[in-house]
Amino acid sequence: MKVSSLKSVFIALIGLVFLISCGKDDTPQDVIVMDDTPFILEHGALPAPSLPSDNQLTIQGVKLGRMLFYEKLLSRDGSQACADCHRQQDGFSDTSRFSIGVELMPGKRQAMPVFNMAWHTNEFFWDGRAHLLRDQALKPIQDPLEMNETLPNVIAKLSNSQQYKDQFIRTFGSSEITPEKMALAMEQFMLSIVSNDSKFDRFLAGEIQLTESEERGRLLFSTEYNPFFPEISGADCQHCHGGANFENDKYMNNGIDAEADIVDIGRQKVTENPADRAKFKVPSLRNIAVTAPYMHDGRFKTLEEVVDHYNADIRESSTVDPALLNTKQTGLLLSQQDKQDLVNFLKTLTDDTFLNNEEYKSPF
Fold it and tell me: Which CATH number fits domain 199-348: 3.40.190.10, 3.30.428.10, 1.10.760.10, 3.40.630.30?
C-alpha cells in the first residue's frame, strides 16, 4: 500500500475515534447550544401564579434577564442599569422620591418595587400603560427621563459582546439579539423574584409568634371600620391590601388629593375614561418598611405619615374610593397606640431572605 493511502486511512480512523468518543448526543465543549431546562419558581405558601404560556421560565432565560437587569449598556451613557433605580436592598425600589436619569433629570413618579410580579395580572406601571411585564421592561430604556437610549443602539452594543451572544444562544437558540428577546428574558427574571419569607409568613406557618403590639396591629389591619362601635372598629386595610400578596391588582384613588389639587390624572391618561381620574395601581405592602417613600409621587416619607393620612386626612374628589370616603367624617378612630401597633405589624412584612437572596444580585 502506498504511503499516501496509509496516511488517508490513518486520518479517517482518527476522525472515527473522535466521533465515537463524542457520543451520539454529546456536543464538543466549545460549542454553545440552547438549553431550555425549566426554572422552577419556588413560591412557598403563596398560591401558584399564572405564568405566561408563551414565555415559560428557563434557567438560561432567567440568567439572561438578570444580566440585562444589571447591564449599564442599556443606558445612553453607560452609567445606569435597571437595578440602579430598583435596588434589592430597598425591595427593588428607589429611596429617592423621584429617580434621577442619565440626563440628571428626575422622573415623574416614584419607582415601584419589583417583586412578586408573577401575581400582578392587571397591567404594569402606576397607570397600567404596559399590558405585559415584557412591555414594561423596555420602556425605561427609551424614556428620556430615565435611561434615554434607543433600542437599536442597545442591540448594537450588546451584539459586540460575545458573552451576550453566547447567552442569547443558550436562551433562544440564536445569537441574534432583538428587543423582543430582551423583553422576554427580562420578564423571566422579574417573574423569578419572589418574596414569601417575612416574619408574618413564618407566623402563618406556626414557626414564631408576633409580639403583642404586632398582633394588635394585625387585627386592626384586617378589621373593618365601624363608626357605630368605636371599640371594635379597625383600620380596614385589607379592603385594598388583601390576599397573600397584600394587594388587589386594581387601580384606585386613595384620596391623597382634593379634586382641585389633582395634577397627575394617573390611569385616566391610559384609558381616557374620566372614571379613572387620579387612580393608580395598588401596590403590595410586602417589604413596605424598606420601600419608602410612599404613594405614586413619594409624598410620604414614613409609614407613620401614611397611617395618619388614612386615619384622618382623606380628601374628596370625584373618583376617590367610596370605602375611604365613608371614613372622612370621623376618621378611622385610631389612637396613637393603634397607629403604632399598625406600623409594627406592617414591619413584620419585611422579608430579609428576599432582600439578601444571592440569586437576585448582580451576576457581574
Answer: 1.10.760.10
Distance CA 46, CA 204 (A): 11
Give per-residue pLDDT as tens, 147-205. 999 999 999 999 999 999 999 999 999 999 999 999 999 999 999 999 999 999 999 99
Query: What is the C-alpha to C-alpha distance for residues 79 and 101, in angstroms, rounded to an integer?
Result: 9
Domain boundaries along the sequence of the chain: 59-195, 199-348
Is pLDDT at 4 greater than 50 in this prediction? no
CATH number of the 59-195 domain? 1.10.760.10
How many residues make up the chain in this entry? 364
Confidence of residue 17 (pLDDT cuts 50, 70, 90): very low
Question: What DSSP character marks residue 78?
Answer: S
Closest to 318 measured CA to CA, from 281, 282, 273, 283: 273
